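Need tokens for this chain, all 217 residues.
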Amino acid sequence: MHKIADIEIQHDILIANRKLAKRNQKILDKANVFAVDVLGAIGSGKTSLIEKLIQEMNHPVAVIAGDVISKFDAGRFEKYDVPVIGLNTGKECHLDSHLVEHALQDLPLDEIEVLFIENVGNLICPVDFDLGSHLRMVVISVSEGDDTVEKHPLIFKDADLVIINKVDIAQAVGADENKMVQDVKKLNPDVNVIKTSLKENKGVSEIIKSLEEFMRQ
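Here are the structure tokens for all 217 residues:
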């Protein structure tokens, strides 16, 4: 009985979250803001990638930076003079629609076109929690191992865009980035997979092109 109750409670939480996610997206649509949920493990390069996109995208940008405790990443984004909201999740290993809803109230949505929502560094917890974004971008790095996709299939099945980052060190860490691409395609054949090296500025323009294509849809 205890297990059944746990399942029912979790089910109710997910239903409530989906309702809030739809409401968030309506708010974003009304303001003509395109929102990207950026997911990935700690150290994958999510923050550095968003920094690159802030600098190189020809669109007014804002960021919601999610973390368990620290607001360190929010501080990094503030250096670029863009609107930033830092969200601390406490014990939770993911953002949810309720937290994002409150953050949207504090953002100048009429002044931005693109909103990056940096989720908590985790490849498991955020999977079931839609935030109301228009696109899910998953960032992984070769330093996590070329079996990372195989170990975390669910997050890649729902991804709209996948970034294989730090390919410049693939040989040094003994990882095969092409295998990682193939593993993603087995799970999600139609998803766009982009190999990047932020150190060498490789792949950033391709990411921007892909995001802008989604924005036009």
